[in-house]
Fold this sequence. Notes:
It comes from Agromyces flavus. InterPro entries: Glyco_trans_1 (IPR001296), Glyco_trans_4-like_N (IPR028098). Residues 48-146 form the Glycosyltransferase subfamily 4-like N-terminal domain. This protein has 348 residues and is α/β, with parallel strands linked by helices. It has helices at residues 27-39, 45-59, 74-77, 99-106, 117-124, 173-178, 206-216, 233-238, 255-262, 275-279, 291-303, 305-321, 324-338; strands at 2-4, 18-20, 65-69, 84-89, 111-114, 135-137, 159-164, 188-193, 221-225, 242-245, 267-270, 284-286. It contains 13 helices and twelve strands.
Amino acid sequence: MVVERSTFQPRYESADVIEYAGRHVPAPVRQFIDPALGRLAVPRFGTAEYFAPLVAALRAQPPSIVLAHNAPQLPWLLRNTPHRVVLYAHNELLRTYSRPEATRALRPADGIVCVSRDLAERTRAAVGTENEAKVHVVGNGVDTARFTPRMEGPRGGPMRVMFVGRVVPEKGVDTLLRSAAGFARSELEIVVVGSAGFDSAAPLTDYETGLRALAARSNARVEFRSFVDRTELPELLRSADVLCVPSRWPEPSGLTLGEGLASGVPVVASRVGGIPEAAGPASLLVTPDDPAELAATFRRLLEHPERRREIGWAGRRWAEAHDWSWAWGRLREVLDAAVPGFHAGSPD
């Protein structure tokens, strides 16, 4: 795995890591100048400068299939190397690209992998006719060995609804807090795990401050926990009675959804983007930005604990059928088809 040196590395403890130092590119170049150049059919020089150390590091490696994670520029930048490049899209990556630029940038790509059908549809619309057939869907898997259900029976106390993720407006935590208005403190507890970024010591943003003011007026118990390391997530999720994913933006997928399902926790999530695909048939879907519908769903789960347990175990079974071995099998099929004769081996 080749990663930029500032990348959060503990999540990669199972991989052999080659680090590179990405060159600094001023924000105005990334945000304004490069996109403007792209629209004029001129290569994005800031992007090329940033990735130059990565390209140099890969030139020293034997020929391989390069999975370019969220980096639509790499197929073009690696076009004169012995590597075969497959773009791995976890997000909508081409919003600043004109259709001609996207066509040119991805022409050298051997494949384009998207983590949901929803993202694949949006990607096909952006990559140009000659690249449409390269787009494939490989959903995220889940670590069902690390994320496991609570086995000691009902927890007792108020129903604990947990949010895990970045605490930014797009994630809809304010909708979650507003949904608690009709609950007593003895009925509902909300735990918000995460920060605006990946630094637990960072100052609160205006949005985070506003959430705390909203929580202070809530009838339910509300607890905020700053960003935590992924190693703490399995135990946290096992302590929840419900996982809520109240996103208001068309999130392409979401690892937290699968981790909640694997933990045997009922998942309540927004019906938007690729979330319904990742949440599976055992999850409960609600309209984004609708605290009343969210509250009604929580009320049903609160009043029917046996049904809550049934939903949780159904989610666990879904996760077991969609673990990382399933995802790797699907990805290997795509790579073998995209790069014939260059067979992908085992991730181990």
